[in-house]
Amino acid sequence: MFNSKMLITFVCLLSICCFFASSQNVLSSSQNISSSQTTSLQDISTQDISFIYEEPINGLKLYNTYSYSLDGSLIIWMAFEDKDPACMLPYLHLRLMDKTGKIEYMDFNYTLPVEAICPINMDILSLTDNHVMIVYVKSNNGVKGKYGIIINYRNESINEIYLGNANGFVERSIVPYKGFISIEKPDKEGIAAWHWFSNPDIITGEVVGHKNGEFHAPNLLSYTLVDSLNFLLIDGGFGFIYILKYNEAKGSDPNLQYWRVYVSFLREGTDSPTIPYLVYQTTKRLNNITINSCTVTYNAEGYVCIMALNNTVINKKNSKSRTEINYYQLRFLSTGALEQLNRISNPTNSNTDIDFEILYYGGFLMEHIHSTMDFYLLDDNGNYTQLWESFGPEFFHFNTFHINNTIVGIKNQNNNKLEFLLKSIPRLNNRSTEYGCPVIETTKPAINEVVDPLIKEIMIKYTIPVKLSTANVSIFQQSDDPSKPDLLRQTFSGDHKLCTVGSDNYTVHIPIFESTFSQPNSSYYVLVDNNFVISQERDEPLIGIIKKNIWTFSTEPLNTPVQHSNSVTGLLRLNEEGSLKFLQTNHSVFFKSMIREFSKTIPVTEQRISTSGIWKYDTTSPKKILLTFKINEAKDDHIIEPNSQTIFEILRTLIKQKRFTALSSNEYTSLIDESAPFIMTRNYFEEYRSLIIIFIVGLVVLIILYILARLKNPEAKNSVIFDTWFIIQDFAVDLAFVLLKVNNTPHLKIPT
C-alpha cells in the first residue's frame, strides 16, 4: 500500500497541475484521501514534491511510464525481468494514476507473443478515458507485423487489429476523438503506407479503419531517403518529414543542395497528403541531419522542430578533425513555408548525451545526461536563460507533463518501492493556464460560474488578434450517469457566420440558442476545436479547448413555480428522404423512434411526448409528409419539470437549428425538414371528443324524456327537464374546472 502522507502530497500536486480541485477515493481497496486545493500552475510553489509508490506484487520492476497531459494521467508499466536483460516475461501489468490520484490496477491474463518481449518490441497508447492499446510485433505465417490489442480498464481485451509492417509508428491524434494512425517505415522507393483508425467505441471498444493511403518521398532519382519522422497536426491530422541526402553516384557539383528536408501534411478530413514542401536545404556536406521532435507552437506560429546538424570540422593549424553537432529550431507554417531557422544555445561542453523538449508554454528544455541529469531553460529564440534543475545519479527515469510544465523523476527501485520526485518548470510568460490553452486569456462565463439559462451569448478573449475559421465550437450538457454520453446542445463552425469577432479583434462572440441551456441547475461545458480561429497575422490555426470539463459552468436552479400549461399539439415536416422512409417503414415504429430521440435531445421523459399517428401530405410540397406530435401536460406537481409550452418552444428551436444540434446526428430526427417550422395546431374534434359525445348523448336522452313526459301529461311544465339538466351541467363544469384546470389560473382567489 502507499505511504499515506506522501500520497496525499502527490494528489494535491496533481490536482494543481490539472487545474481543478478534487475530493475522491485514492488508491487501495479501502483507503480514501481528500483534496480541496484549487489553484493554477502559476501559484505552485517552487518546492519539490515527492511521494512513494509501493507495488503490491513482489518481483515487478518499473519498465516505463507514459504521461497524458490532456487528461492528467500517468501510466506506470511494471514487468517481471527475464534472465536476458533485453527481454521481459510475457505478462502485462499497468498502473493507471488519474488526475485525482486514484489508481487502477490492470493485471492482464493476455500472454504477449515472444516477438514482442524478447527483445522488447512493444509500446502502450492511451486512446480514450477507458481504453488503452498495447502495440507490439508478432509473426503471422513467418511474416512480422505490428499489431494492437484494445484493452479496457476492467482488464478485458476487446480485439486485436493489424496495424502495418513491423517497423511502423503508431500515434494518437492531438484531438482525442479523431482516432490514431499507423505509418509504416518508407520502403526503398520512399513510399510509406498509412492507416487511419477510429477511437474505440465507448460501449463495445471496437475499432474500425477510417481510410488508408501513402506518403511519397520526392526527388529520389537524385537523392537518397536517409530518415523520416511523423508528427501531430493541430487540426487532428498528421505530418510527415523526409530527410534526403544527395546521391553522389549521380555526380558531384558543389552548387547542388547536398541535404534537403521536406514536409507533407495529411490534414484531417482529407483522403491524401499534400505534396511535399521544401523547408530546409544546404550545400554543406554534413555527416548527418537528424530531427528529434516536431510539435505545434503555442503562439500560432506554425510548427517547430529540433534539428541536429552533424559536421566534421578540421583545425587548420594542426589539421586535426573533430565532430561538431549544432542544434537548430526549424519553424514552418501549415502552408509549408519556412518561418524561422535559429541556432539553439548549448550551455554544456558536450555535443552528445543531450536532448531537447519543446515546452508547451514557450521555450525549450535541454536535458544533459552525465553523472547527473541537468535541465537548462532556453527562451523562444533558443537562447540560454538559466540552469533550471538537476536530478542526482540515483534517478534513472524521467517523464514530462507538457500542459502543466512538470517533470517527474523516479529513483532506482528499492524492493517494491518507487520514489517519485516532481519539479515544476518555470513558465517564460504569464499566459493563462486555466484552459490548458496558452492563447486563451479569459472567457465569459468564467470557469465554474453559475449563469442565467436565458443568456444570449458566450465569449472567448484571445491573447492575439484572430479571425474565424472552419473548426467547431460545441456546448455539451454533462450527463448525470457516467455510463451515458454527454448531451450535445449546439455546435457550429466559425465559417457558418453565426459567430462574430469583436471590434478589438481579440474577442469572439458565440450566440446561444434558446434550447441550449434549457435545463436549470445543470452542468455544461464548452469544447473549442483547434482551428476554430486563426491568427490574423499568419492565418495559422490556434489551439483550442479540446478536453471536456475544462471550461465548465452551471445554470441557475429554478426558484419560482413553473406556470402550468395544457397539452399542445405540433406539426412538423419530413424532408424527401424522411418522407420516403416513413412510407416504407412501419408507421408506429417510426413515430416511437422519433419520440425516443426527441426525449433524449430535449431532454424530457418519453411520457411527455405522444402522437395520434395522424399524418398527411403537405399540399405546398406534395413529396413531403406532415406528422403530428402532442406535448403532454405535466402530471406530477411535485416534480419540477418544464411545462408543455416550454417543451414545445425548445423543440421548435431544435428543429429550426437542426443542423447545429443533436437532432442532425440521430437516425430519425435527422430526417426532419428544418426549413418548415414546427407549428402549433389544434384538432378541436380530438380535443373535445369526449365532451361532444356526452353532449349529444345527453341531448338525445333529454329529448326522449321530454317527448315521453309530454305524451303522458301535455298540460304539465315539462321544460323543467331542461332546466334541471342545465343546473347539473353547470355544477359539473364548475367541478371539472376546479379539479382539472385550476392550475391554469393561479392568480384567481377563492372568495370568502
Count the strands? 44
Number of contiguous helices: 8
The biggest sheet, with number of strands, parallel, antiparallel or mixed sense and barrel status, is:
5 strands, mixed
Query: What class would the helix/strand composition place it in?
Result: mainly beta
CATH architecture of the domain at 568-685: 2-Layer Sandwich
Shape descriptor reads elongated
Note poorly predicted spans. Answer: 1-45
How much of the sequence is in beta strands?
Answer: 35-45%
CATH class of the domain at 568-685: Alpha Beta
What Rg, in angstroms, do the CA atoms define?
Answer: 34 Å
Distance between the termini: 73 Å
Could you say what the CATH topology of the domain at 568-685 is called?
A: Alpha-Beta Plaits
Helix content range of the residues, please? Answer: 10-25%
Main sheet: which strands, in order across? 30-39-37-33-34
The mean pLDDT is 85
Task: Provide tags for this entry.
752 residues, mainly beta, Immunoglobulin-like, Alpha-Beta Plaits, 5-stranded mixed β-sheet, 5-stranded antiparallel β-sheet, 44 strands, 14% helix, elongated, disordered N terminus, membrane
What secondary-structure arrangement, pairings included, does this model have?
Layout: H1 4-17, E1 49-54, E2 60-68, E3 73-80, E4 92-97, E5 103-108, H2 114-117, E6 122-128, E7 131-140, E8 143-152, E9 157-165, E10 169-172, E11 180-183, E12 191-197, E13 209-216, E14 223-232, E15 238-246, E16 259-266, E17 277-282, E18 288-296, E19 303-314, E20 321-332, E21 338-343, E22 354-358, E23 364-369, E24 373-378, E25 384-391, E26 395-401, E27 406-411, E28 417-424, E29 440-444, E30 449-451, E31 457-462, E32 466-468, E33 472-477, E34 487-493, E35 500-501, E36 507-511, E37 523-528, E38 533-535, E39 551-555, E40 568-573, H3 576-584, H4 587-601, E41 609-610, E42 615-618, E43 621-631, H5 644-656, E44 679-681, H6 684-687, H7 689-712, H8 720-741
Parallel strand pairs: 30-39
Antiparallel strand pairs: 1-28, 2-3, 3-4, 4-5, 6-7, 7-8, 8-9, 10-11, 11-12, 12-13, 14-15, 15-16, 16-17, 18-19, 19-20, 20-21, 22-23, 23-24, 24-25, 26-27, 27-28, 29-31, 31-36, 32-38, 33-34, 33-37, 35-36, 37-39, 40-43, 40-44, 41-43, 42-43
